[in-house]
Amino acid sequence: MQSRVPMSANAGTMQQKTPHSGERAVEARSTLQSMVASNSVLRSSERYFYLWMAGLFVLLAFGGFTPTYWAPVASGTFHGPPILHIHGALLFSWTLFYFMQTTWIASGHTPTHRAWGLAGIALFSVMMCSILVAQITVMRLGDAHGYGDAARRFAAVALCGFPVLIGFFSLAIANVRRPETHKRLMYLIMVGFMHPAIARVVLTLFAPPGAQGPPPVFIAVPPGLIADLLIVVAMIYDWRTRGRPHHVYVYGGLTLLADQLLTVPVSATQTWMSIARFLEGLAG
Questions:
Q1: Where are the domains of the chain?
Q2: N or C: which end of the chain has fewer CB within 10 A?
């Protein structure tokens, strides 16, 4: 009789490991597929969130300026220098351009979105120049009508936010290959541009009868806070889909809020008045 070869105690264990290893591989593959599917659904949801918000920006921009610009232009009662029409056309073009770019992303045409990027940089640059020229023109007109210092102080509302928006845009371009950061910076820029549109509605509804000249600077704070609610909406969306708000919204929102609140004391300083007079002097 042949002697039996003793079986190692580990042999049975090794035989049992094979099916368990296969099960783990199947579970890992299933988990990975679930994560990929979940991320795909999240990206699709984000695309449509930003598309809906872009549509809201268009409605706010056009609706907000209807009482003070579109309606008077349509009725032939708007009287202002040509730069105001140029500035308005550029601002509304930018709002529509943002909507178009968001639409390309939502429909999956990312290469087309990127192909229009240089056009967006050019449009933004010209638009920001128009803001500066328009504010200089408005200050000079206010001075001609006896509202010189009041016009200079109120110009701080737009001009103090000028470097903030340029900073956001520069960061957005620098982060063009980081879409999560890029799109949120662009969103902050649009929120900043909604401030004057909302302010027009507030001034139309609550301005005292027969009010003349530029309003006090603090009047611009409530419309700014209303515009900031659009950032809160995006932060809540991030919290529900990502578990926490993106840091761009946290720090960018605080930057916009600080700009809105600090504009009031800054506009009353002699330093600001000197800057405003210097800008007026650029027009000759």
A1: 45-281
A2: N
pLDDT value for 13: 47
Question: Cα 12–16–17 angle (5° rounding)?
Answer: 120
User: pTM of the prediction?
Assistant: 0.83
- pLDDT, position 210: 75
Query: Any idea how long the chain is?
Result: 284
Confidence of residue 2 (pLDDT cuts 50, 70, 90): very low
Residue 64: both structure tokens together: 């907000």
Mean pLDDT estimate for the chain: 87
Q: pLDDT > 90: what percent of the chain?
A: 75
HEC per residue, the chain = CCCCCCCCHHHHHHHHHHHHHHHHHHHHHHHHHHHHHHHHHHHHHHHHHHHHHHHHHHHHHHHHCHHHHHHHHHHCCCCCCHHHHHHHHHHHHHHHHHHHHHHHHHCCCHHHHHHCHHHHHHHHHHHHHHHHHHHHHHHHHHHHCCCHHHHHHHHHHHHCCHHHHHHHHHHHHHCCCCHHHHHHHHHHHHHHHHHHHHHHHHHHHHCCCCCCCCCCHHHHHHHHHHHHHHHHHHHHHHHHHHCCCCHHHHHHHHHHHHHHHHHHHHHCCHHHHHHHHHHHHCCC
